[in-house]
Amino acid sequence: MATITTTSQNFHQNPEFYPEIAVLPSSSSHDGLEFYQFMIAGSIAGSVEHMAMFPVDTLKTRMQAIGSSSCSTPSVNLRQSLKTILKLEGPASLYRGIAAMGLGAGPAHAVYFTVYESFKKVLSAGNPNNPAAHAASGVFATVASDAVITPMDVVKQRLQLKNSPYKGVVDCVKRVLVEEGVGGFYASYKTTIVMNAPFTAVHFAAYEAAKRGLMEVAPERVGEEETLVVHATAGAAAGGLAAAVTTPLDVVKTRLQCQGVCGCDRFSSSSIGEVIQTIVKNDGYGGLMRGWIPRMLFHAPAAAICWSTYEAAKGFFHDLNSRNNQVD
Description:
Blueprint (H helix, E strand, L loop, with lengths): L2 E3 L2 H6 L8 E3 L10 H18 L1 H11 L13 H11 L9 H26 L7 H30 L8 H12 L8 H29 L6 H22 L1 H11 L14 H12 L8 H36 L1
Antiparallel strand pairs: 1-2
Helix pairs in contact: 2-5, 2-12, 3-12, 5-6, 6-8, 8-9, 8-10, 9-12, 10-11
Family: Belongs to the mitochondrial carrier (TC 2.A.29) family.
Main location: mitochondrion
Membrane topology: Multi-pass membrane protein
């Protein structure tokens, strides 16, 4: 990812001095963090992102699992779904399963950003503005992180369902292991990768492109505070676009992860084609786009939160490393 550096000392000494913007390769001092620092930054970003937007994710899960009225919210309208949940189940139901996401989001995002930064450095070949390298790095990152997050995502979604039979995270894990085996946690892994590979490729490429474009619009106004706004804006645009494009596969993932629970359809295999055929047969092609609004409402601000938090954490570690180097 391109890094924006500014000569902030001169800027503060002279209010009319505009900071110089330099696009540096990934080996620059800002991106030149220790391995564990990338993991911590990514972990913090992922946890903040998912916790902040969890109620919207619950609405999306309910709407996508609507093939069975007993496991979903009766109405597919976002506003009506929210009203129904609040009226019949209370606000706390919007946060059911958040513990599972808390356990999975941190480690998964630590892996996600670490793999992304590592591959970006190798694949960019000295060109920080290489969109193909950004996209490919994002794909490698998501394949690795999905192996970490998928089991907890299964637990999370099953707890989010209306009338979920599980008492909590531990109970859900135990029952899935006993009734379905370890494979029950990875029934949707293939679908998740097929979905998240293009999602992440679009996300990272769009993020880097949007960030560069925003920097070019008004470079004279870019300071430390505005940089965080740029990260958040670029992240929101990238997240919303990627979410819209991959909604049909997200519906397939939800159906696979919730199959057999609360009366939700059970499939004979984890074949993406079989699930799509079932959805189209029962709900028409519109069924493949269920939950696209809350999905976009989740990913646009979530991406903004995630990227701005990640960049802020990287900046913190950069400053920390600089101070330590000065002391040494």
